[in-house]
Design goal:
373 residues; D-Maltodextrin-Binding Protein, domain 2; 2 domains; 5-stranded mixed beta sheet; 34% helix
Length: 373
């Protein structure tokens, strides 16, 4: 397979960038469990005294880029440990809009989520609904293709490439990449020089096997799943970013919950930092714990080693939310016609995270000028 032509590497913005939704709401990464509906999981047992509330409701997706949440919210997980006697009621989401809806309705307090639905929720509420309080993961998305039909970037013309959902993180990334390479695609219909098909992650492998698509821009473990079926990586999204890092999952809290229960948010953030450290120090055990937890979740199935191992390697677990890459991703969405302008100032409140990081003698995380005043 020949290498793709060089791409234009985007430079992170350092000044305030304003962006909001123009048409469809931005979805989350869209690669959760195989369940058709968002489902609650059993409330985790708690021990010790409760914090300022008896219960906290936390959401996440059943996939590798949300492994910090999947592992940390196990009954013996480090997030669970930090919360002490405060019960955790978890809910699995298949797409970001439903998680944002739950948060806006007061049914969810904290969630692991992708960058674009956070932008959507913040912009749609006039900056009143949420704050990004921590990072969780970087990377883990690729353009993988059928080598029999796509041998190089030049072969994308006239081909059918899937993304998980209209306006989701990978959809925006693909549309932006195609635009940079001179391909014209209507952002809403997906029609144009390349056909962009929006297909749920759980359905993409079957579409690939059936020859209905020539490739997909997808996150892990869907990318590794397709490669196990004969696909090849045409482009790792990390190649488009400085240092190969870009936010794929961060942690948001409802603003009202953060105001009323900062100690609970601090416990979750502290658990995230501890869980990420444990994953990075114990990658083999982390894979095993994640896979076991995945198999116990509603609609979840354990992953075979040929999918789990490479998928886990493609994701970096880190505490920094990589705020500048969120800005660039939002700028990309504007350029392809999925976003209009709005003020994102205040989307970040990293005060708790930076306090936790300072205690651990770790570097401070930046907010790209979009922190609370």
């Amino acid at each position: 397979m020949t290498a793709p032509r060089p791409v234009r590497r985007r430079t992170p913005l350092v000044a305030l960038t304003s962006l909001t939704l123009l048409l469809a709401p931005l979805a989350a990464c869209g690669y959760g469990s195989d369940s058709d509906d968002d489902e609650p999981t059993p409330t985790n047992s708690a021990s010790g005294p409760a914090l300022s509330t008896d219960e906290v409701r936390v959401g996440y997706f059943a996939n590798i880029t949300h492994a910090t949440g999947v592992i940390g919210l196990e009954n013996d997980g480090l997030i669970r440990e930090e919360l002490g006697g405060t019960e955790v009621k978890t809910q699995i989401f298949n797409a970001g809009p439903s998680a944002i809806e739950a948060l806006n309705a007061g049914d969810l307090d904290i969630t692991f989520i992708g960058p674009n639905p956070a932008i959507n929720g913040f912009a749609g509420s006039g900056g009143q609904s949420l704050r990004v309080v921590s990072g969780a993961a970087s990377g883990g998305a690729s353009l993988v293709v059928n080598p029999d039909t796509v041998a190089s970037l030049d072969d994308l013309a006239g081909k059918r490439i899937a993304t998980p959902q209209l306006g989701n993180t990978q959809d925006v990334a693909l549309l932006s990449y195609l635009n940079d390479q001179g391909f014209e695609v209507d952002p809403q219909s997906g029609s144009g020089d390349v056909s962009v098909l929006r297909i749920a992650n759980s359905e993409i492998p079957a579409a690939f096997d059936g020859g209905d698509i020539d490739g997909a821009w997808v996150p892990e473990p869907t990318a590794a799943n397709l490669i196990s079926r004969g696909a090849e990586t045409l482009l790792d999204e990390g190649e488009l970013w400085d240092n190969g890092q870009y936010v794929v999952t961060h942690v948001i809290a409802a603003q009202s919950f953060l105001d009323e229960h900062p100690d609970v948010v601090e416990a979750v953030v502290r658990g995230v930092v501890r869980t990420n450290a444990w994953i990075n120090e114990n990658p083999d055990e982390a894979k095993s714990v994640f896979n076991g937890a995945l198999g116990r979740l509603p609609g979840g199935n354990e992953l075979p080693a040929e999918v789990l191992d490479p998928a886990f390697e493609n994701v970096e677990f880190l505490n920094d939310p990589l705020a500048e890459t969120l800005l660039v991703g939002a700028e990309n969405a504007t350029e392809v016609g999925l976003l209009d302008e709005t003020d994102l100032t205040g989307i970040y409140d990293l005060s708790i995270l930076n306090s936790v990081l300072a205690e651990a003698d770790l570097p401070e995380a930046g907010d790209a000028g979009l922190g609370v005043g």
